[in-house]
Amino acid sequence: MENIGFLGLGIMGSAMANNLIKAGFKVTVWNRSPEKCAELAALGAQVAATPAEVTSSCRISFAMLADPEAAQAVCFGPGGALEGIGAGRGYVDMSTVDAATAREIGQAVCDKGGRFLEAPVSGSKKPAQDGTLIILAAGDRGLFDEALPYFEKMGKKSLFLGEVGRGAQMKLIVNMTMGGMMAIFCEALALTAKAGLDTADLLEVIDAGAMANPMFKMKGAQIAAGAFDPAFPLKHMQKDLRLAVALGDALDQPLFSAAAANESFKKAKALGFSDQDFCGVFQAISS
Ligand code: NAP
Prior knowledge:
Elements: E1 3-7, H1 11-22, E2 26-30, H2 38-42, E3 46-47, H3 51-57, E4 60-63, H4 68-76, H5 81-84, E5 90-93, H6 99-111, E6 115-118, E7 121-122, H7 125-130, E8 133-139, H8 141-154, E9 155-160, H9 166-194, H10 199-208, H11 214-225, H12 234-250, H13 256-270, H14 281-285
Parallel strand pairs: 1-2, 1-4, 2-3, 4-5, 5-6, 8-9
Antiparallel strand pairs: 6-8, 7-8
Helix pairs in contact: 9-12, 9-13, 10-11, 12-13
The structure holds NADP nicotinamide-adenine-dinucleotide phosphate.
């Protein structure tokens, strides 16, 4: 069986690589902080010393990294993924980045004779663990077809959206929606408390009507309990809002609500809540 690579074993990457190993694929992993490789090594993964070691030994390598800076560092840095890319090798970057970053990495991979697909995902820690992510791919169609057996173990739906950049844009638009929903939801919860109303009553009313959704149900309970362990780190939500607002700038599309939501998440970061779950923005809004 062919060896596949996985770079970046954070909350999402560790769960996704785990599903590939459980499905019986031979997986070689790398993470900047090497201790995060131990759990997957115990399940049978090979551990590489550098991203280049992964990409040079695997026909297809997946990456799941924090942000544009991390995606660039892992691709272009010393011992980076690009050094190991040779003719025909596939590089599938599943990190949430902006379209320009995806194009820059994609161009560099293609210039070395490799093939590139961006494939950011919708869905959080639990869907990553359950293999039910929604994969928003764009770039090399042949690589998409080849990666489908792996995507099918990581996700429940895989879309091919066209040229590189369209996956990043779709992902940012989806997360802009989520960030905006979370900000107004937290404002509603804060106002409920200030008015002396019962939070549980608000959650029950919302859940009974047309605004009901799994996110409000799950995160509402977490906020009420003051439980902010990260499934989706707040700093990544702010990064996505920042990049979505920049996309709006570039396209002259006013984004009044997204820009306001971004300010709430910026305030939450300034207050020290970066590594909490993104529903921790409640603490900044209610303070
Ligand atoms: P995370 O737990 O913070 O993991 C981030 C990963 O990036 C870690 O492997 C980290 O390595 C690595 N990294 C950060 N900076 C780096 C650098 N300069 N050089 C090399 N590696 C670096 O994040 P996550 O929740 O797994 O999210 C990963 C990506 O998926 C992000 O783009 C996020 O926006 C997106 N996403 C997340 C969710 C979610 O619900 N969590 C859902 C959909 C999409 P270390 O372990 O060494 O820090």
